[in-house]
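Example 9 (inverse folding). The structure is encoded as follows.
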């Protein structure tokens, strides 16, 4: 059986997304040759997935139980006097989300990350180059702003030498707590 451990809080779920996009970015740009194999495709798709999740967190109008920069009560443990900072992150996130995800009604076939990852369409047969370094450079200020806003520099997904994927189970994150005992968000 394969599973993912329960996330410890809403904030740590966001931090997990940040950890994973940084990991995928680092692995993609460290290679000396283009990644023309399944591992490369998997890394690229993981990068795109976490990029999309983060631009939705920063820029998409939340629906239902979506985590969003516009809902700080879900992810902030402290009262902050940084409402202007949060609004700036939201505005910048909206621009980034519109660039990569927004589809106008008159252009339902716009090449979005979601269409690339989620749908088996004829659009996917067209060659598409993803500018990973450019995309990462665009989202990095939002990530840094979030870290500054919530005052959290810890990591949720860490390399654990004892972690092994087996037929008994696999996880998408190894969770370590860093003084967040009793946290219920």
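The amino acid assigned to each position is listed next.
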């Amino acid at each position: 059986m394969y599973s993912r451990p329960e996330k410890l809080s809403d904030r740590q779920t966001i931090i997990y997304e940040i950890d994973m996009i940084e990991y995928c970015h680092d692995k993609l740009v460290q290679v000396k040759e283009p990644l023309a194999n399944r591992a490369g495709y998997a890394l690229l798709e993981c990068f795109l997935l976490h990029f999309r999740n983060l631009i939705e967190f920063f820029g998409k109008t939340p629906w239902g139980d979506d985590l969003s920069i516009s809902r700080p009560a879900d992810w902030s443990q402290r009262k902050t006097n940084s409402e202007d900072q949060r609004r700036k992150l939201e505005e910048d996130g909206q621009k980034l989300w519109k660039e990569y995800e927004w589809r106008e009604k008159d252009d339902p076939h716009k090449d979005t990350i979601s269409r690339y990852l989620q749908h088996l369409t004829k659009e996917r047969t067209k060659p598409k180059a993803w500018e990973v370094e450019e995309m990462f450079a665009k989202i990095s200020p939002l990530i840094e702003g979030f870290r500054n806003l919530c005052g959290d520099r810890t990591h949720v997904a860490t390399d654990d030498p004892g972690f092994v994927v087996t037929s008994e189970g696999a996880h998408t994150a190894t969770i370590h707590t860093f003084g967040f005992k009793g946290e219920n968000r």
